[in-house]
Amino acid sequence: MRLEEMVSKPVVAIEIDAPVHEVMALMESRAIRHVPVMDRNRLVGIVSDRDLLSVVGTAAHDDATITDLLRVAHVMSSPVHTLTPEDGIDQAARLMLQEKIGAIPLLRDRQLVGIVTVTDFLIRFRYDRSFLHGAPWRSHGVGDYVRGSVYSVRAKDDVMEAFRLMCEKRIRHLPVVDESLVGIVSERDVRRHFADLIRDACGDDRGTKRCARIPDKTVIGHIMTTKVATIQSSATLAEAAGCMLAQRIGALPVTDAHNQLVGIITEMDLLLFVAVNEVDPKPLRTSPRNDDQRNETDHPSAGQDAPIFATAACSTSA
Predict the structure, then answer these.
(1) Are 148 and 230 contained in the same domain?
(2) Cα(18)–Cα(53) distance, rounded to whole angstroms?
(3) What DSSP letter does each residue of 78-93 carry, written as one string?
(4) Are residues 316 and 228 in contact, defined by beta-carbon separation less than 8 angstroms?
(5) Domain boundary among 117, 148, 170
(6) pLDDT digits (tens, 9 = 90+) for 135-177
(7) Can you state the angle between helices 267-274 and 237-247, rounded to 10 degrees?
(8) 174: nearest Cα among 145, 153, 160, 199
């Protein structure tokens, strides 16, 4: 299967000299986490939630001239890994896993014509019955694949603690545990918080004003999501994939029979399982990473096939 058969919506891009707050607003309004960066008609970079978190988080706690944050050129990642619409999905899956990236822009004759994301893969796996070939991996238990330990934070910890841990360990989600699981915080939650701090301290004159260090005593409990979707370790990988798509999230805390946290499973973990077992039978020299985020694309239309992944094993806290 070629990538052009999987990408179903126009790509959204931004110019290199656009303000950073503009790309933030674009991500929020379109519910996306990767935006290609253009210099006129030439692809020159890509901006992700992680790029924004790193820069905005540092500025929120250090003396900073907000002018340095204003332009997309200062926060984008470059150079960019790209493919063509005619390339196979196996190439995209392997590239994502080997380079640990969640999106790949597609070029034809050096022109940007699309973008493929991890979530595009999961949506295809969910709705396209012809894509899977028996898929024995779908019945494998989640508990057999989650890591023995998981990074977590407490509700009373400072937000800066979550920021440091996310940057140091390159993870996008942190379960919040106070004896038991009480919430989850994502890099987008942290980035929004820091952006609010900068706006409150610097006002709208972000292009010329030097903003001093911003005092911040906010604890994680104030920004975390308390309505957490979880999955039991006895559930199957297929059920985990179905839950992520149904809940429009990129990671699921995994609990045991006593509802104690035992791990976390992400979109990238599932992409690895599928890539090894379905897309390309050759082993990949990589390991699952808990570094995904929320759903990046809209659900397919109701006219498509019914989901092939069950969601009964997925539960959501009150």
Answers:
(1) yes
(2) 17
(3) -S---B-TTSBHHHHH
(4) yes
(5) 117
(6) 566 677 888 877 667 899 999 999 988 988 988 888 889 999 9
(7) 140
(8) 153
Same domain, 35 and 141: no
For residue 217, the 8-state DSSP code is: -
DSSP SS3 for 310: coil
Tokens of 183: 């919430």
Prior bond to 307 cis, omega within 30? no
3-class SS of residue 132: coil
123-144: pLDDT as tens digits: 776 655 555 555 566 677 888 8
* Residue 239 CB partners (closer than 8 Å, separation 6+): 142, 231, 309, 310, 311, 312, 313, 314
Q: Is residue 203 part of a domain?
A: no
Same domain, 171 and 281: yes
Pairing label, strands 34-39, 14-15? parallel
The pTM (predicted TM-score) of the whole model is 0.75
Name the nearest CA neighbour of 92 among 65, 128, 57, 119: 119
Q: How many residues does the chain have?
A: 318
Q: Which two tokens stand for residue 41?
A: 């008609």
